[in-house]
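Researcher: Re-running this chain for the archive, since the previous output was lost when a drive failed. Same request as before.
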Amino acid sequence: MATMIASKQSLTFSTEPWLVVLSLAVCALTFALSYFAWRRSGFLKSVLWLELLRCGIVVVGAVLLNQPEWVQEFRSDEKPALLVLSDNSQSMQTKDVLVKNESGQSEAQSRANAIESLLNEDAWSAFASRMDVRVNAFPADGKADGTDLNSALNQAIESTSRVLGVVLISDGDWNAGQTPMNAAMRYRAQGVPILSIPVGSPTRLPDIELLSVDTPTFGITNKAVRIPFSIESSLPRDHVANVVMTASDGEKVTKEVRIAAMSRTTDAVLWTPKTEGDYTLTVEVPQHPDEVIATNNTMSTPIAIRQEKLKVLVIDSYPRWEYRYLRNALSRDPGVDVACLLFHPGLGKVGGGNKDYIKEFPNGMDELSKFDVVFLGDIGLEQGHLSEEQCKLLRGLVEFQASGLVFMPGWQGHEHTLVDSALEPLLPVTLDTAQPYGFGSKSPMRFELTEAGRRSLLTKLADTQEENLDAWSTLPGFQWYAPVIRAKAGSEVLSVHQEMSNEFGRIPLLVTKTFGAGKVLFMGTDGAWRWRRGVEDKYHYRFWGQVVRWMAYQRNMAKGESMRFYFSPDQPMIGQTLSLRANVMETNGEPLSTGDVTVRIEAPSGKFQVIRLNSGGVDSWGSFEGRYEVAEPGSHKVVLTCKQTSATLETTFFVQGATRERIGLAARPKVLEELSKVTNGKVFSLSDREKLLAAIGNIPDPPSTLRRLQPWAHWITVASMITALAAFWIGRKWVGLI
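Model: Regenerated structure tokens:
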């Protein structure tokens, strides 16, 4: 333990020259007056002592008036510390430091290898007698996802009481924590300079990096799965590459992609799995001849392939053509179990027909919660159609059970009555109640995709964007559309009327919206059945199949006999906050209103977090919610548990994207330059070792600790002066001078 040793002591005065002269003059005058007073008394001994006391008081007062200070200087017996901080993050593995080999040719080595000679304490042996040299790396294990310069600098200066200076060796790739300028200001206040050694090239090397592969959580057998990916290129020219996706069963899919120069390219491959099971998909971008780094051209992600059986409920009033073709399309889909409910005014009772028909609206939450998607046709809130209670049940199904709801209005205009029901907040559009029957035309009218519609999976009727636009432009037209005024805020318009518009713009025809945990779709025409003309089920079946699966996707991420678990966004990235939801049922099938529901999430590193999910209440259909901060990429294990029902559900989810610590990015020497500038330090290159050693040798020792004793301001001095004056006054009384 360090101790402080007093090395120097001195008495100093803080005063002006004129005050010294005045003090001497007062003292001289006092001495003269005292002598004459003693002589006038006949040289009495008692008066002598009294006048000596007077002179003493005046002399002490004159000295105190010049503010004397007793200064003690203390020095520590501990040597000052020189801290050498080296960057140990993954970005230091980038090979962009050019060095000459034995043959005199330049070759690239990693940033970490380039600084190895500075990490040995023998490299700083010249200062061993004067300084305590400490070489530390950050992060300590080298595996942290991010470089936190601020924390590294703060921890360094807190590790010792006497820091002479800091040598910071890094590529400057600060990507985590607070700004390092906070630590720099602290160093400046303590007079500690930062001597920086930037490592790495400030310009990025020629490289192609596969940034992300956004694989969905699960797919369906014999249904095409879209695997989007992103590629970043620092090459100076565009080039064409054959991107290969390989499944764990050996199946390969190749996609020719034009990779743009000095930018990011996004594309996707389509893969149709034949059997169910857990797969690992590996996407690889071939190495370019000019590319320096080939280790970041491959990425693997997991996906679960399942057999599908979605439950769909279709409700309508009249068996119009749109209803009939939709029912046929869903009935013939092997992954869909369809139930139909027809409120035909000409029928004596509801139900009848083939096995797809049910006799009444599902009774209660437990029966309705079985359906993944509900289609509402030309029906409304009126006698013989839906009741207010049934509208509330449909709203709860979407909001708390993550089911989908599709509005498909018709020329009877029953949908306008839903504006006054519990379903009104779910409508993604504002309806014109003054025109409940909509608008018809003798000539066919057509859809026009918006920018969002061109990107959406719902409107993808062909494999490429060009073919998809051609498909929509050649679809048979419709001759009726719903009375829509505008799309509501928060909704997404996928398609508009090609010609008709109002003061709000084009009439929206295909609109989606998220409500609670579920999704809503509004189809503003009843002419989709015409899409079969000349091509049979090519477009009609594909469109409605995509709608059903898109709306039911989140709800079916993970499900057991009495529990469901899903999250949003469904393709999470590092740094995002996941919204976790679970639906829990009691043993009798009723929704669990309150209970202890927890989810344990284990990250790829082994770190885990237990999150207690909060209940939405009695009317929340057994819905429980929570949040989780995503900090690591890779596969995360999830265990959902309910204490009341003793039920558990195990699943996984995959976090997409690369880590913040990426190999191949350019170094950031400007960061280190700013740190040195703020702390009055300097910047050196790896080749300036002699200059660096000289600069360290010129750093002055930390200043000594000074202790100042100020007697003129001490309470004992004041008390002593008052006592002396009192004694002088009493003495004058005693000798008879007063």
